[in-house]
Amino acid sequence: MDNLFADLTPPLEGERFDVLLRHKGLTIERIVSSPRIAHERYVQAQDEWVVLLQGQAVLDVDGREVALTSGDHLFLPAQTPHTVLQVSDGALWLAVHLHPTP
User: Which among 63, 62, 49, 59 has a CA at the least distance from the CA of 88?
Assistant: First the structure.
């Protein structure tokens, strides 16, 4: 057993990705963010559902700006380009990745 809220110290830069569960085509990860992030564009092969548990963030989702606050969640279908533009210090995310079956 573990706790989602244990060790929430954000990295000095970027984001820390902690895999909580990997099972068949499912991956669940916890993400802890620093406000100093590279604006990396993600285009993933898998569907992703993400919830912002703590903090605030602004994302570019396929050219549309989306502001999130604690409790907001978002479904990102596979191949949807998205970029984290801004995030509060210590923002806490839970991401669920649904990988296609081979």
Answer: 59
| Contact by Cβ (8 Å): 98, 53 | no
Residue found under tokens 């060790």: 7
Is the Cβ–Cβ distance between 70 and 52 less than 8 Å?
yes
- The ranges assigned to domains in the chain are 15-98
pTM: 0.92
Cβ of 66: how many Cβ atoms within 10 Å?
Answer: 14
| Residue 74 near residue 64 (C-beta atoms within 8 A) | no
Domain 15-98 of CATH type 2.60.120.10: yes
**Placement of tokens 């596979």 in the chain:** 78
> What pLDDT, in 10s, does the model give residues 63-81?
999 999 999 999 999 999 9
**pLDDT, tens digit (0-9, with 9 covering 90-100), for 26-75:** 999 999 999 999 999 999 999 999 999 999 999 999 999 999 999 999 99
